[in-house]
Amino acid sequence: MQPTKSQHPLSATLAPLDDAIRDAMWELFVQIGKFWKNIDDPSEHKPRVYSFMENRIALDPMYRDYYITANNVIKQLVDQYGEVEGYHHLFTDPDAMKSPPATPLALTRQKVSNEFVSLQLAVGGFKAFGAKNYCGFIGGAYVPSAPVPYRTMENHDAG
Predict the structure, then answer these.
(1) Whole-prediction pTM
(2) Binning pLDDT at 50, 70 and 90, where does residue 148 land?
(3) What is the three-class DSSP state of 37?
(4) C-alpha dihedral sign at 100, 64, 62, 48
(5) With CB atoms counted within 10 Å of each terminal CB, which end of the chain scores lower, N or C?
(6) What is d(CA 159, CA 156) in angstroms, rounded to the nearest whole number?
């Protein structure tokens, strides 16, 4: 018997996200890289972002609504503050981190934006913080004679 893909029973009944939503979520991923300065060229990760979103929806159908809500929130923030300040507000507003999320902004930050930050780190964003041995979550074993694969306290203040 071949293993089956994990999927919530309701996910198969959902319409796929339209291109405008997918493109808006891609732009969010790009803006995260610009804001945190952790990925020089995000273009190679576009298929991963789309696949990540599809997998999230397959496991939890609410993610389809989270992405739609995120699109609306981002549009409102950009209309209100402009592109740079709108994204800055999304990434830094302390009210958006109150748990459980009780506003569309908090939902967008916690269920979409923060997960995209984690995805960026997993696909190579750690390089911007000094990782040398691996482009993902782990930097390898700590070997005193080898270069440190992560930022240490000694070089934290300098960078």
Answers:
(1) 0.77
(2) low
(3) coil
(4) negative
(5) N
(6) 6
Please provide the DSSP assignment of 82-121 as one string.
Answer: -HHHHHHHHHH-GGGG-SS--SHHHHHIIIIIHHHHHHHH
Q: Are 101 and 73 in contact (CB under 8 A)?
A: no
| Residues found in the chain | 159
Contact call for residues 98 and 130 (beta carbons, < 8 A): no
Closest CA to 53 of 39, 38, 64, 37: 64
Alpha carbons within 13 angstroms on the beta-carbon side of residue 104 total 12
Per residue in 108-128, pLDDT tens?
999 999 999 989 887 776 665
Encoded amino acid at 79, one letter:
D
Q: Which residues contact residue 43 at a Cβ distance below 8 angstroms, ignoring those fewer than 6 apart?
A: none
Question: Count of alpha carbons within 13 Å of 28, Cβ hemisphere only?
Answer: 32
Residues 6+ apart with CB under 8 A from 84: none
Closest CA to 78 of 24, 129, 121, 153: 24
